[in-house]
Every structure is written in structure tokens, then in C-alpha cells.
Design a protein that fits this description.
Elements (H helix, E strand, L loop, with lengths): L7 E6 L17 E2 L2 E2 H11 L2 E8 L4 H7 L7 E5 L4 H9 L7 E6 L7 H12 L4 E7 L4 E5 L2 E5 L5 E3 L3 E4 H14 L6 H7 L5 E4 L10 H17 L15
Parallel strand pairs: 1-4, 1-6, 4-5, 7-12
Antiparallel strand pairs: 2-3, 6-11, 7-10, 7-11, 8-9
Bound molecules: cytidine-5'-monophosphate (C5P).
Length: 245
Amino acid sequence: MQNIDEPAVALVVAAGSGTRLGGPVPKALVEIGGRPLVRWSVDALAAGGCDRAVVVVAAELIDDFRVALAEASIPVELVVGGSRRQDSVAHGLAAVGEQGIVLVHDAARPFVPAQVVQAVRRAVGSGAVCAIPVLPVVDSIRRVGTEGSVVVDRSELAAVQTPQGFDIATLRSCHLRAAELGLEVTDDAAVCEAAGHPVTLVPGAREAMKVTEPFDIVVATAIAAARVASGSEGPVAVDLNKEKQ
Ligand code: C5P
């Protein structure tokens, strides 16, 4: 059992190629608002109560990440990743220690507000085995198949974000089990759920968006500018009346 304000270790996965973004450098090293995405991510996790970070990177970029994270706000250890996201998480888990709370985060979500990080951390500190941030789905959704498409009730759906929080020992054993069974997953909550553990939901935030496509850079640049101007790690206040004044 953890305690509610126990600091967590951040496990930031940044070993993907980020090909959908285009451009000459991998996604996590793209600079927005004067800082690489991975640096924003590590600092966001620190603001939410992580006291150290394990960052998982591609072997050939380890020196670039060392430079990108040289002035991060918490100590950082770099670990080499694997071919799938779940392999990168498994490699990172070997470096996080045996006990406590781990928050697994996509480097591609640089602007997760401190409040979301804190909510995930505190849910695990209060006894949840696995806690994840989610958002309601705002678009209408259809399931598309070879015979056409059918509407899906969006009120039953939620979009899943990171960081996802876990008791370290439990997540390690769930990942070992997933590897033995050859499970293919896109996040760590799925690894835990497959082992029979309940998943606790906490409110996510639009700012925890995953920077994936060139369009997202436009939004991310605006968020970074607002953060730099306000000097805060919290959600950016959008004043819809500003134009009218
Ligand atoms: O590809 P996707 O958007 O799902 O990647 C989510 C996160 O997982 C990214 O931050 C990416 O760098 C990371 N990743 C990784 N190792 C891989 C693939 C993805 O660390 N082999």
C-alpha cells in the first residue's frame, strides 16, 4: 500500500520514430517554445509530483536526448527502447526500481497539466492498482467495416491519455505475463487489465493531447507560448471574450 502524497518515478517513452509528424528529427526532440517535447514532458511530470525520470530512447539518439534533458527539473536516467511501445515500457521498467509508484507517460504528450499528473499519482497512492486519465469523446463515432458503417454510442466511450499510474511491482509482473502470452497492446492499462486488475479513471485534459501530426504542432506551439507567458505548468486559460474587448 502506498501513501497518497508519495512521489512517483516517471517512465517516459520516447523511442518511437514519430514518422507521422514528418521533419528531420524524431518527434520527442522537436523543439516547441524553445524546449524539446521530451523536456516539456519530463518537467510536466515533475510539476505533478515525480521526483525522478527514466526516459526510454532509441540507441542511436542517446547523446541527443542527453543534451535535450541536461537541464530537466528532476534527475533523468536514459534507457534504450525496443521495437514496440510495450517493449520500450518493459525496458524502462527494469530501471525504475522494485517498489513504489510509476507513472508511464508518452513523451508525445508534452503539455499534460500538473493537476492531471497529480490526480493519477494520488489515485495510486490511495490504493488503485492502475489509474488512467480519460476524456469524453466529442465527435460522433462510427464503426467501419466491409459492409458499411454503424453508429457507436459515444456516451459509452472515453479517450485514454497518459500518464498512467501503477504500483511498480504489479506493472512489472503484468508486463512479464503479457510477454509470456504474446499480448499486443497500445497502453499499459491494457496490460494490467489483461491480468485481471481493475482500472481506475480520473479526469484527463485536452492539453494532454498527443502530438502526432503536423497540425498538432500548431496547437502545441500556442500552448507552449501561453505556458511561457504565464510561467505555469497548469491548464492554459482560454478567454473567449478577449476578442470582444
Ligand atoms: O506510436 P505512438 O504514438 O503510440 O507512441 C506513443 C509513445 O510511445 C511515443 O512517445 C513514442 O515515442 C513511444 N514509443 C516508444 N517505443 C516504440 C514506439 C513508441 O517509446 N517502439
